[in-house]
Amino acid sequence: MQAAYNDEMEIYIHIPFCVRKCLYCDFLSAPADESARMRYVSALKNEIINRSDKEVWPAGKMPVVPSVFFGGGTPTVLGAGDLSGILSLIKERFNVKQDAEITIECNPGTADEEKLSVLRRAGFNRISIGLQSTDDEMLRKLGRIHNFEDFLRIWKAAREAGFKNTNIDIITGLPGQTLRDISITADKVLSLEPRPKHISLYSLIIEEGTEFKKLYDEGKLDLPDEDEERKIHWNIIDAFENAGYRQYELSNLALPGYECAHNSGYWTGREYLGFGTGAASYLRGIRYADTRSLDEYVSFWTDSPAFNEPSFPKSICRKPEGIAASEERLFGPLSEKETLTESNLMEEFMFLGLRMTKGIDTEEFKKRFGKDIREVYGDIIDKHMGEGLLIKRDGRLYLSRRGQDLANYVMSDMILEKNISV
Ligand code: SF4
Predict the structure, then answer these.
(1) Is residue 18 in contact with ligand 1, taking CB distance under 6 Å?
(2) Does the reported pTM lie above 0.85?
(3) Which of 63, 83, 189, 320 has the fewest Cβ atoms surrounding its Cβ within 10 A?
(4) pLDDT digit string (tens) for 114-125?
């Protein structure tokens, strides 16, 4: 287990609002009126202020922050002033690197050039736009609020506002989607001017509690079968790789030098602090998640400026074990807290590392855990290499394409023990 804070720590901000709920979505997001959004912004700022207090960091020394990510929901549902204000507070309270990657997620229909220009001037330097499909009929079936024309408008606005580092989200395995459909999507994205620097591909998963789950149960979703879905997945990856992109993670491709720093940090085990409902933090081998209840979150952090006053509801603010007393200020109401054992950390190293196409460095495993990887995973590695799912080369271990298709099967073999929740 890690004994001290790392030198670097990422920051994630969760904005749980959307214009309307998409039919397939189970993210922590919902429509909200202006006054609910205002209350949330004010609570969020209080959470940032309380959790950034210099007293809570060892010897007053904060890690350097190489990336900040505003995700959701749809962050751009908030006004440019609110988003800029939150970012400037983070910069004021944390040790954000001069050249940090600062991403904002945005959906067509929630921003224009003026808003994006304000965000760019405030310091956001990467924009991630949810396109999902270039087919208007598909967008309608998904319950998206935009069509492809709306996307083109925001694409132009982002360019005019000066965003050069851009990502587009695309979903594969959609109802009725064919190989021809996905080729058209790839062609349309590749004909954008300028081309996006990064592509995130998501395979549609039917999640509990969504409208899609109901339609699926009623037999009304015509999903491609598993083989077809995999063909669609590899077809679009090949189209982008042929155009100069490189798949660097199971679901992500980038032009050289534009891999997402924030997500890469996450996959390599960097620590992070998350702010907002449901946002996860990972510090010194312990993972936390803020409460998922908007009401509990807002009421706790709205009341919290007077942390040192006797009325402060410390009973709600759980003090994580093994962390100095002053550090209880790092946390408000939690929905999760999990102390990772050494076995859990090894599993994470394997799960996250194998998500990347460069795989894991077997020497790095030894450095972190003081054990040869073969002592722990020798039999499992041999089994999956024998099945052609894992490849070993130059001291690295990574998934073959077939291994990527069967990633869940390979990963499930990496589990050493049941996680311990406290
Ligand atoms: S915009 Fe994104 S977060 Fe919001 S409902 Fe749609 S998929 Fe979910």
Answers:
(1) yes
(2) yes
(3) 320
(4) 999 999 999 999
